[in-house]
Amino acid sequence: MMPSARFPDLEGQSVLITGGGSGIGAALTEAFARQGAKVAFIDIALQPSQDLCDEIEQATGNRPLYLRADLTDIAELRRAVGRAEEEHGPVTVLVNNAANDVRHEVAEVTPESWDDNQAVNLRPHFFTIQAVAPGMVKAGGGSIVNFSSTSYMLNIGAMPAYTAAKAAIVGLTKGLAGRYGPDNIRVNAVAPGWVITERQRELWVSEKALEAHISRQCIKRTMLPEDMVGTVLFLASDASRMLTAQTLIVDGGIL
């Protein structure tokens, strides 16, 4: 169930979401559309993304703009940003959501697999910000929300390249908050706990593991993609206009 809060300043804003076709990203795409924003999202999966656009248009009357691109290809990424700006004007809200939490044993990591991991989980955050920043400056400001993860804070050893990237996103957030604050651009991060998406259910969730995880939460229920929505809408809106360089942990109270 989507949060009921309405942020009037988000209506008409040019919003860009990476990885917006499934999981948390799809919930955010729908949520911004419901706020009346002009939403564009980047995703590599063609059919699910087109289906999502149809569903959101039918539910809200506001059709998102789907931009098919491989985020590991920076030239493709830049072209997608350019198309979003052509259709909706300068991006004033950017959500860097795309990620791949693939598991990997330390002994099996190669220089190539390490670089491939960072090319999905860290590098696009920076280059998407680099691409939207000039337009955001000209627009008079904006909000950037980077997705990190609590996984790097929990000493999880099954995905070291991923957790390294998610820790680095916090450093990137703080550095770019300092760089762009004078331009009235806020840069914050969200660190989710275990959000149970369809991908998580297919690959990692067992009844025993989920019960054990929820038992550690203060709030004893399964966290779902829509539970990320309220936090991101708040950070995108002028309700948080003096909040920057922060990482908000949304994990049901484990940390």
UniProtKB/TrEMBL annotation:
What Pfam families does this protein's entry cite?
A: adh_short_C2
Among InterPro entries, the record links this protein to: KR_dom, NAD(P)-bd_dom_sf, Sc_DH/Rdtase_CS, SDR_fam
Q: Which GO terms describe its molecular function?
A: oxidoreductase activity, acting on the CH-OH group of donors, NAD or NADP as acceptor
Q: Which UniProt keywords apply?
A: Oxidoreductase
**What top-level branch of life does the organism fall under?**
Bacteria
Per UniProt, residues of the Ketoreductase domain are 13-194
What family is this? Belongs to the short-chain dehydrogenases/reductases (SDR) family.
Q: What is this protein called?
A: NAD(P)-dependent dehydrogenase (Short-subunit alcohol dehydrogenase family)
* Native source species: Aminobacter aganoensis
